[in-house]
Amino acid sequence: MQTIFRNARPSWRHSRHFLRTVNTQASPDPNPKMTSFGYRDVPEEQKESLVKDVFDSVASKYDLMNDATSFGVHRLWKDDFVSSLRPGRKGPVKCIDVAGGTGDIALRILDYAREKFADRETTVQVVDINGQMLQEGVRRFRKTMYYNTPQISFHEANAQELPPSKFQDNTYDLYTIAFGIRNCTSIPAVLKEAHRVLKPGGTFACLEFSRVDNPLLSTLYDQYSFSVIPLLGTILTGDRESYQYLVESIRKFPPQPQFAKMIRDAGFETGLDADGGAWTNLWGGVACVHTGVKV
Ligand SMILES: C[S@@+](CC[C@H](N)C(=O)[O-])C[C@H]1O[C@@H](n2cnc3c(N)ncnc32)[C@H](O)[C@@H]1O
């Protein structure tokens, strides 16, 4: 099911902002291609609905859990991510924030452009496959000055196949995706779409959990992730499995050089394969920012 809406209100599914609903039913494949869902292998066609279930389950507590599991550090990483991109420095920019969830990155982009450059014309379209995550985002934006302005809009769509009629070729100056790409079934398909919708010279920027090089830090991080995060998930949301998946999916994500190559293969130019080049590690690689420019 695909639904697209703009400046939606909490009752968005019933509002006039609800624009489109399409149902598709695929027949089962006897020899399905497999992909990872955390540490499990599942048929590719099932991954999207499994991921959707995870975020349906965590949506209402997503922001709280982010703070609890990272002790608020995700906020610093997101601040670093957005300030490294300096949106608005050359004038207003048209941004698309994919897998944008509850709008954390969108809000930072708009705040940064306004606070640093008095820019009230930069726009962000938040795109996510999960309507419940977007609904949380809409709720949050209602309390901001951006709500019901052309600066922000929310759209339900799959990062791997953005509807071309809505998300046209060569349209955006900046494409951001934060903690989202590892949840997608096909990373190359996401990168291909990012390349398609960006203008030549536009920037692709990804913030994602990544690979920690330091063995001591890596061991401590593993112990923390696999014991504390699922436990917090159980205590705060009653859902251990979703948080177990989120941790496992981090370990399955390609390491920095491999992901940088995928970005180049999609047609982007990156810096050299090193920290400070094609990517910038945060906290020794616990998280990492990858950027590329559409050539
Ligand atoms: C961990 S959340 C990150 C949300 C937000 N970017 C942030 O940093 O707080 C991952 C998001 O990716 C979305 N997602 C997963 N697969 C997707 C897909 N194929 N297309 C678009 N969004 C997807 C989920 O619904 C979820 O909202």
Distance between the termini: 34 Å
Percent of residues in helical segments? Answer: 40-55%
Largest sheet: 8 strands, mixed
Radius of gyration: 18 Å
Uncertain ranges: 1-25
Shape descriptor reads: globular
Number of DSSP helices? 9
Structural class: alpha/beta
Mean pLDDT: 88
What portion of residues belong to β-strands? 15-25%
Q: What are the bound molecules? A: S-adenosylmethionine
Features:
two-stranded antiparallel sheet; globular; 295 residues; 9 helices; 2-methoxy-6-polyprenyl-1,4-benzoquinol methylase, mitochondrial; S-adenosyl-L-methionine; binds S-adenosylmethionine; transferase; membrane
Describe the structure.
Component of a multi-subunit COQ enzyme complex, composed of at least COQ3, COQ4, COQ5, COQ6, COQ7 and COQ9. This is 2-methoxy-6-polyprenyl-1,4-benzoquinol methylase, mitochondrial. It is an enzyme of class 2 (transferase). It is a peripheral membrane protein. It is globular, with a radius of gyration of 18 Å. Strands 5, 6, 7, 8, 9, 10, 11 and 12 form an 8-stranded mixed sheet that branches. A two-stranded antiparallel ribbon has the order 1-2. It has a two-stranded antiparallel sheet with strand order 3-4. It has helices spanning 44-58, 62-70, 73-85, 104-117, 131-141, 187-197, 215-237, 240-252, 256-265, and strands at 2-4, 20-22, 34-37, 40-43, 94-98, 123-128, 152-156, 172-178, 198-209, 268-269, 279-282, 287-294. The chain has 295 residues and is of the alpha/beta class. It starts with a strand and ends with a strand. S-adenosylmethionine is lined by residues 51, 55, 99-102, 104-105, 128-130, 133, 158-160, 178-180, 183-184. S-adenosylmethionine binds at residues 51, 55, 99-102, 104-105, 128-130, 133, 158-160, 178-180, 183-184.
